[in-house]
Design a protein that fits this description.
The protein has four helices and seven strands. The protein is of the alpha+beta class and about 180 residues long. It folds into two domains: about 30 residues; about 130 residues, Protein of unknown function DUF192 (Jelly Rolls). A seven-stranded mixed sheet has the order 5-4-6-3-2-1-7. A hairpin with a 5-residue loop joins β4 and β5. The longest helix is centred in the first third of the chain and has 23 residues. The chain is globular. The N terminus is likely disordered.
Length: about 180
C-alpha cells in the first residue's frame, strides 16, 4: 500500500467521524436556532437623570425627576423593559431615536403596563400612549418623527397630569 493510499484510507473513517459528530452537535431544527436568548441585565444599561417639565394651563410649570435606563444599542432597544415585573414610580427607560423617524413599539414579553411618551427633536412630548397593555403584540406608533421615546410606569403620566407639549430633557451619561 502506498503512503498516499494509506493516508486516503485513514482519512475516510476520520471524515465520517467528523461528519457524524457535526450532525450530533448541529441543532435538530431551525426552531432551536431561534430559541430566545437570555435577557440583558438592566444593570448593564447606562443610566441617567431625566426631567419632565409639565406646563400647566395657568402658565405655571412643575418639574418631575426620574432615573432612567438608556436603550442606546439595537439589542437594548429590542429588549427595553421586557421581563421587568415592577417599575418604581421614579424610574423609566428612554430610547434615543437617531436619526429622528416614526417609531413603533410593542409590549411583547413586557409584564407591566407602561406609559409611552413620544418626544420630538425639540424635547416636546408629541404623543402619549397611556397604560399600554402588557404582553400585547399591537403596534404602537409615534405617528410622526420623534427623537426619543420615554417609557414610564403605567398610569404615571395621568397621575402627574402630563400632556402633549410638556418638555423632556436628560443628560447623556459620561462614557
Amino acid at each position: 500500500m502506498s503512503a498516499a493510499h494509506a493516508r486516503a484510507t485513514l482519512a475516510a473513517p476520520i471524515a465520517t467521524l467528523i461528519i457524524a459528530a457535526a450532525a450530533v452537535l448541529r441543532p435538530a431544527s431551525p426552531a432551536f436556532a431561534d430559541a430566545p436568548r437570555r435577557p440583558l441585565d438592566l444593570a448593564t444599561f447606562p443610566r441617567t437623570s431625566l426631567e419632565i417639565t409639565h406646563h400647566g394651563a395657568d402658565h405655571t410649570s412643575r418639574k418631575y425627576a426620574f432615573e432612567v435606563w438608556i436603550a442606546d444599542t439595537p439589542e437594548r432597544a429590542e429588549q427595553g423593559l421586557m421581563f421587568v415585573s415592577d417599575l418604581p414610580e421614579n424610574m423609566g427607560m428612554v430610547f434615543p431615536v437617531q436619526p429622528p423617524r416614526v417609531e413603533t413599539m410593542w409590549m411583547k414579553n413586557t409584564y407591566i403596563e407602561l406609559d409611552m411618551l413620544f418626544i420630538a427633536t425639540d424635547g416636546r412630548v408629541t404623543k402619549i400612549i397611556a397604560r399600554a397593555s402588557p404582553m400585547s403584540l399591537q403596534i404602537l406608533s409615534s405617528d410622526a418623527p420623534v427623537a426619543a421615546v420615554l417609557e414610564l410606569r403605567g398610569g404615571q403620566a395621568a397621575r402627574l397630569g402630563l400632556r402633549t407639549g410638556d418638555t423632556v430633557v436628560w443628560k447623556k451619561p459620561a462614557p
